[in-house]
Design goal:
heterodimer; A: 302 residues; alpha/beta; Rossmann fold; 2 domains; six-stranded mixed β-sheet; four-stranded antiparallel barrel; 10 strands; 30% helix; B: 423 residues; Elongation Factor Tu (Ef-tu), domain 3; 3 domains; 18% helix
């Protein structure tokens, strides 16, 4: 018998997230887990596997696919979901564009990041999902610091940050009217460091682009972008080979790489511990304005 | 910080900070994060830029916590914001709550999950109504550790006399409250005195700086490890060939300790069984206690569903449809209706509840009971009696935060309209 009943912080966070996932299964009729193949959604998927083990997670996984992917993450996505016995739905931004639901941005900084909102909301409506679980964390960004675990969205998919339901103890309220839905964030209280420590402790596989590798990049506004088919070079931009890795996985046109030699989880953790930039520091989508994230979230972004 | 056991072995302290922008609350949080190197370059760059645009003389650390556009425009904090930082000793979660009178509900929300509360006092103003309100809420929500930070000591010449005066003022008020541990610290959040480092300006202060206190305060006895309570959240039935007969009850332990082999009673059926195993994913554990999420398997096949509770035969909660509670009212559109019907959510159970009577309202500045005006509006705190449509299994909030708390939901608007603490 232990002398003191104490659990360490990672176990507390894990227990909290599992509790949230089980509440999601219990309180929603048609929940779904949003899965991008990024490290946070991988951790959510792992926690879902634990929460319902030995049963399969009682909700499908959905990838909102911008079509601008790092090939490594798509390959990883399919393998990972198959391994945990999950069902994968792919909602495609290209389809939304083809159907005239969304209009592609133009210019050298064009990105499909914002268009994902259209595709996501359409997919939620099409599949009649009422609870969409995401891997967003409160420490990522200042607007996200105000999020609830169960976050209400009106019939237009909008978030009203000034008028949120109070969330006390571990009592969640998922009641809603027809056409409304919720976003659910089991990792709300996790930090970037916690996510990495958990991946290490659980020995969870992650896409190779998180580890240091040689890649052809272009430097734009101080951010290193992957030189791929989706990006338009501006005058004077010359692609160069650098040793880099990615700290987040998003749309391949706006996710910045960092120069790094970290080729193992241990080295990544050391790098995170001594980092002087937040992980979203390399995200061109957040730099558009001071409240870029709040504005996108109000519209229905992740 | 590295990958060694040091990091993995850390524990977690959740605290809440109450106070308004004028008290220097955001400056204090900014200072804690800045001095523990939690603020990143790009964040600092962003707030430097907006400070300049706003014409602030110094880098306005408050901009770090006030994230919404409306908050920046109005210079106020609207909602509970959660902040995270770590030292080599502990991880911290801050529930940063605004202190204006209309935001009692945010303070209650932030306090509901906190181990510790920091209450800020402006050294020039001393104990004001707002201080009393914050202390009352900390005591009502049973936060065991309260830290009074007497801020802006630089503006009263770091005077020991002024500090002692405020300590005396507050202690007199707090003697009417139920707070287990109170700590007073004289600080200047703006200049960093006694926040992370000991102040050279106040050699007369013999206590620890704030951060040291946060790192070392003992919270091991805060959770209930005496009265075993396991509210069933989700029944796990794999329907697969390999686990054909598996039937596990998923949930989070709300109190006490459970071990394989323990005799248990299931509420409301009253059936008894023994714990066959306690599963955490692929491993079986020897014991489980609050706040662990586990799956419990029993020796016997009993009909158990979400909302039921597994307890020990010799230590059972109150089973009743009548509830006596303190509630904090959250709704701005509607007042609490005597005879009104609401949805009650308690542990993993949902039922209907009717307000049988409203006994009194509390004046949260003076602690007086008001029996003449029973109109309960937003941010009011009242003692009420409820009758539920089916029995709930509960303890007093004093004994157990998880089995002693509930929320009321308006069945027409679906909004969470009240938080309740069972007496």
């Amino acid at each position: 018998m232990s002398l003191s009943y104490k659990i360490r912080h990672l176990e507390q966070l894990e227990s909290e997230a599992i509790f949230v996932l089980r509440e999601t299964a219990a309180q929603f009729e048609r929940p779904v887990i949003l899965f991008s193949g990024g490290k946070d959604s991988i951790v959510v998927a792992r926690l879902a596997q634990k929460a319902f083990w030995p049963a399969r997670p009682p909700m499908p996984f959905m990838h909102v696919d911008t079509g601008h992917n790092f090939p490594e993450t798509i390959e990883f996505r399919d393998r990972f979901i198959a391994d945990i016995g999950g069902k994968l739905i792919v909602a495609s931004v290209q389809d939304s564009i083809d159907q005239g639901r969304a209009v592609e941005e133009t210019g050298p900084n064009a990105s499909r990041n914002a268009l994902q909102t259209v595709t996501l909301l359409d997919a939620i409506e099409e599949h009649r999902f009422d609870g969409a679980v995401g891997g967003a964390r409160r420490d990522e960004e200042k607007a996200r610091a105000k999020e609830r675990f169960f976050s209400h969205r009106d019939e237009f998919g909008q978030w009203d940050p000034k008028n949120q339901r109070p969330e006390l103890w571990n009592l969640f309220n998922a009641r809603k009217s027809q056409g409304e839905h919720f976003r659910v964030f089991p990792l709300s209280n996790w930090t970037e460091m916690d996510v990495w420590q958990y991946i290490l402790r659980e020995e969870i596989a992650i896409p190779s682009i998180y580890f240091s590798h040689e890649r052809e990049v272009i430097e734009r506004d101080g951010v290193l972008l992957d030189n791929n088919d989706f990006i338009t070079l501006a005058d004077g931009e010359v692609p160069q080979k650098r040793i880099v890795r990615f700290r987040t996985v998003g749309d391949a046109t706006c996710t910045g790489a960092v120069e790094s030699e970290a080729d193992s989880l241990e080295k990544i953790i050391e790098e995170v511990a001594s980092a002087r930039q937040t992980e979203r520091g390399g995200r061109a989508d957040d730099k558009r304005s001071e409240s870029a994230m709040e504005d996108r979230k109000k519209e229905g972004y992740f | 910080m590295s990958t060694d056991e040091g990091y993995l072995d850390m524990d977690l302290l959740r605290f809440t900070t109450a106070g308004s922008v004028d008290d220097g609350k955001s400056t204090l949080i900014g200072r804690l994060m800045f001095d523990t190197k939690t603020i990143f370059e790009d964040q600092l760059e962003a707030i430097e830029k907006s400070s300049q645009q706003r014409g602030d003389a110094n880098v306005n650390l408050a901009l770090l916590t006030d994230g919404l556009r409306a908050e920046r425009e109005q210079g106020i904090t609207i909602d509970v914001a959660y902040r995270y930082f770590a030292t080599p000793k502990r991880k911290f979660i801050i529930a940063d709550t605004p202190g204006h009178i209309q935001y009692t509900r945010n303070m209650v929300t932030g306090a509901s999950t906190a181990n510790l509360a920091i209450i800020l006092i402006d050294a020039r103003k001393g104990v004001i109504e707002q201080t009393c309100r914050h202390a009352f809420i900390a005591s009502l929500l049973r936060i065991e550790h309260v830290v009074l930070c007497i801020n802006k000591m630089d503006l009263v010449d770091y005077s020991e006399e002024r500090y002692e005066e405020i300590v005396k003022q507050f202690s007199e008020f707090a003697s009417r409250l139920d707070i287990k541990e109170m700590t007073f610290i004289p600080i200047s959040a703006l200049h960093g005195d006694n926040v992370v480092n000991r102040s050279e300006n106040m050699p007369w202060y013999g206590g620890s700086p704030l951060l040291y206190h946060l790192e070392t305060v003992y919270i091991g006895s805060d959770a209930n490890h005496v009265d075993p309570r396991f509210p069933v959240q989700w029944v796990i039935r794999p329907h697969s060939e390999k686990y054909h007969d598996y039937r596990g009850y998923g949930g989070r332990i709300a109190g006490g300790v459970f071990k394989p082999g323990d005799e248990v009673t299931v509420l409301p059926s009253g059936f008894s069984s023994k714990i066959r195993s306690i599963d955490r994913f692929e491993e079986e554990v020897d014991e489980a206690f609050s706040p662990m999420s586990v799956a419990v398997r029993l020796e016997d096949e009993i009909d158990i569903s979400r909302g039921d509770m597994i307890v020990k035969p010799n230590n059972q909660p109150t089973v009743s449809q009548d509830i006596d509670a303190m509630v904090c009212w959250f709704s701005s559109d509607r007042t609490l209706q005597a005879r009104g019907k609401y949805i009650i959510r308690h542990t993993t159970k949902t039922a209907k509840a009717m307000v049988k009577s409203i006994q009194y309202k509390v004046d949260i500045n003076t602690l007086h009971k008001i029996e003449t005006d029973l109109n309960i509006g937003m941010n009011d705190i009242a003692r009420i009696q409820l009758r539920t449509s089916e029995p709930l299994f509960f303890d007093s909030y004093r004994k157990n935060r998880f089995t002693g708390s509930f929320v009321l939901i308006d069945e027409f608007t679906n909004k969470t309209v009240a938080a309740g603490m069972i007496r």
